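Human: My hope is that you can spare some time for a protein that puzzles me. I am handing you a single protein, as its sequence and its fold in token form. Could you go through the record with me and say what the backbone is doing? Take your time, and here it is.
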Amino acid sequence: MSITSKSTKLLWAAAAGRCSFPECWERLCTHDTGGAAPYTIGEMAHICGDRPGSNRHNPSQSDLARDDYLNLILLCPTHHRLIDRRENESAYTVEMLHAMKAAHEAKVLERLDIDANPSKVNIARQVLVLLMENRESWVQYGPASAIARREPHNEEVHAVWISERLSVIVPNNRKISDILKVNRLIFSPVEQEAISSFLIHTRSYERWVQDDISYSAVVRFPTEFEAMIKGAADAGAQ
């Protein structure tokens, strides 16, 4: 068996592309490469070791369970090596690693918490920051980016784009959706249509990222939503 694409995506998305070791928070996708192709450094570590003799190996665990998201933790290379050193097996137990993973994923969710604000201008500005971050990820690393066109068969470039979708775009879409759901009544009836289109887009996009549907089933990003948010954000400009 091997780690499935679905488990990989679930793990990277839940960890927001960051090392799960306490106080590390290292971003596991390297962008500043001096003109070279960006690359990922994240490692999907097995909580119960994948081979006989490896740390925390459970011989009664099935191959399917061994490579499942529930038995994986996303780490930087340094901390992956640390937990897998033979002398550290008693320090980094199965229970501790599960707790470490849970704490990290809770931290990710906490950072997505919303600072509710009744002002349409401030809500739009919060959303706009996230939209622009998503757009920059698309421009820099998406299929139509300069580096993707220059190196169309570079697997590391493609891996970075997958990482951006999981650690930037999907979490940002979730936060935007939550902001809109909490504050939706502030927007006018005309604006509600654009909001509904965006929410449908984000749900279908995330299902595609998680391999639940094909790309052809993804509802396209509604440009009218971006225009609406920009207009609302600019309304408070002096």
